[in-house]
Write a structure and sequence with these properties.
Helix content is 28%, strand content 30%. The protein is of the alpha+beta class and 556 residues long.
Length: 556
């Protein structure tokens, strides 16, 4: 018992010491700074940034540490593993002959300079018609028709009589009369040597060609001066192409062309441009370009449809890259250069035309043998995303240690304006909390509209610009969560500008200005835990802290 009394104070001392140590440990653990998780981002959508690993809410890819996408000046270094995952392909800028095909529909025509009309200079009647079928092939001197003409009979009698008279002048005059009527000289000499006139005279083909028009039949009168038959030489055809006026200058005389005919698949005919019409068709705003095609075998026929391909020379020695290497943002053309070691650089270029082989001419911005990216440019698939990527991946504008920007200088406002601001902020915070929960709160929306209009009227003169922006943001109304989220962008922008200067009242508390890069837009909220009102549960934690707005100091 005496020993127990001796040890009891010592035991109590050690128990109290242990309790103190445990309390100190717990207290220290509660107040010890918690290590902040590293910042992660998406290699495909670099505007997505969050603390800790996970999946991208946009594309579903696994997030990577943002340090792997750090930017050095204009050069963007990317982790080689990420480069491999993106499937980046690179090629060299080269020089090449740049050509492009121009395709157009065309129709075959009989050449105008190869057509010949058969017209009589003396009237008569067709006794026998030899050229009786359209399309029949006629050789030179083939008989066309036999003509009975009283005038020709009388002229023959005069010719025979003049020959018998022995008067050379009279014979020459009679002979000249028949020649002027279109009879060949050999036929006239044959008639002069005859003892009697012929009842009919045979007219023969003056050229080799195809009968394309016939205006007479056997037994019909054949008046003088009227075309009776038309022959066309189809050994050469015209291929007429109607081109829009913008394309006519690109097809000069002598341009080679290749034609394919629907009737002969797999075959082609070659020719050159021999004519360009000096005028346009006013209705269709097109001009005729003509190609001459050989047709000695007679397989081609006027009226056939064809497809013509012109080989246009765009540049004889051009600096070219694959067309997929050039990103068109609408206002700029961008090519990503590969410097090796996972380092890439965006380069503005001036791009020219693109040829048939998929090569685009580069007029300015690149040099021969530069390495350019031809696959994986989805990192910069639009101008807005490209600019946001550059901002996100650069050190420009970031505070040391990643802290938010300092608050703007405070401006004192009257109590009435203070009450209006706090009322508006109360309705605004209730509405954004509902939007973050994917809930359309109509009473909060209507209360915010009324409060915002009252606030715009209560603000002092030096807030005139901000007040006008606030009035414009609530000028209209909308129903539905999606539409009201769209209107929230402008309303938040105006309210953020006002709150940063006037500061929230003590009843509201300090606010945080958050930024959503996907919209992009800002919003106000209590605390720093991200609750994105623009996307809600879809991307609730998408965003970043932009600045903190402290409570307004009491007016003295």
């Amino acid at each position: 018992m005496r020993l127990l009394r001796t040890l009891l104070p010592a035991a109590a001392f050690f128990v109290l010491l242990g309790a103190a140590l445990a309390f100190g440990f717990l207290l220290g653990r509660d107040h010890a700074p918690v290590a902040e998780l590293p910042l992660y981002t998406c290699s495909m959508d670099p505007e997505v940034r969050r603390r800790g690993p996970g999946l991208c809410p946009v594309c579903g890819m696994e997030l990577v540490p943002a340090s792997t996408l750090a930017r050095e000046g204009k050069v963007l270094p990317i982790d080689p593993v990420v480069v491999q995952q993106m499937g980046v392909r690179v090629t060299r800028v080269a020089r090449a002959r740049l050509t492009r095909s121009l395709r157009a529909a065309a129709v075959l025509r009989a050449p105008e300079d190869g057509q010949r009309d058969v017209t009589l200079r003396v009237g008569g009647f067709v006794e026998t018609l030899h050229a009786h079928t359209l399309g029949m092939q006629l050789e030179l001197d083939d008989p066309l028709f036999e003509l009975y003409s009283p005038e020709l009979v009388v002229a023959q009698e005069e010719l025979i009589a003049s020959r018998r008279s022995g008067d050379p002048e009279l014979l020459a005059a009679a002979r000249e009369k028949l020649l002027r009527w279109g009879l060949p000289a050999a036929l006239v000499d044959e008639l002069a040597a005859s003892d009697r006139s012929r009842r009919t005279v045979t007219f023969r083909s003056p050229v080799r060609g195809v009968l394309v028009r016939r205006e007479i039949v056997a037994g019909a009168p054949a008046p003088a001066g009227t075309p009776l038959l038309r022959l066309a030489d189809l050994d050469r055809l015209w291929l007429d192409v109607n081109l829009p006026e913008a394309r006519l200058p690109k097809v000069p005389l002598g341009t080679p062309a290749t034609a394919t005919i629907d009737a002969y698949p797999g075959e082609s005919w070659s020719g050159t441009v021999v004519f360009r019409a000096p005028q346009l068709d006013e209705a269709s705003r097109t001009g005729v370009v003509r190609i001459a095609l050989g047709n000695q075998d007679g397989r081609l026929r006027p009226g056939m449809f064809a497809t013509v391909r012109f080989a246009l020379l765009l540049a004889d020695d051009a600096l070219v890259v694959p067309m997929e290497a050039v990103l068109d943002t609408g206002t700029r053309r961008v090519v990503w250069l590969a410097h090796g070691g996972g380092r890439f650089e965006p380069r503005d270029v001036v791009a020219g035309p693109t040829g048939d082989d998929g090569l685009t001419q580069i007029l300015d911005g690149l040099a021969e043998n530069d390495a350019v990216v031809v696959s994986g440019q989805y990192l910069i698939d639009s101008e807005s995303r490209f600019l946001e990527s550059i901002r996100k991946l650069s050190d420009e504008g970031l505070m040391a240690g990643g802290s938010a920007l300092p608050a703007a200088a405070a401006v004192a406002i009257e109590p009435a304006a203070r009450l209006a601001l706090d009322t508006t902020l109360t309705a605004y915070l209730a509405l954004t909390a509902a939007f973050a929960a994917d809930r359309d709160d109509d009473p909060a929306w209507q209360a915010l509209i009324v409060a915002a209009r009252s606030l715009a009227d209560a603000l002092p003169a030096d807030f005139e610009k901000d007040a006008a922006a606030l009035r414009a943001s609530v000028a209209g109304d909308a129903t539905g969560l999606a539409k009201r989220r769209e209107l929230l962008v402008a309303l938040s922008s105006a309210l953020v500008a006002i709150t940063e200067r006037a500061r929230p009242g003590p009843s509201i508390g300090a606010l945080a200005v958050m930024h959503c890069p996907m919209v992009p837009a800002d919003w106000l909220q209590l605390g720093e835990q991200l609750r994105n009102p623009y996307y809600g549960s879809e991307m609730l934690e998408c965003g970043e802290l932009k600045t903190k707005v402290p409570v307004a100091e009491p007016k003295r």
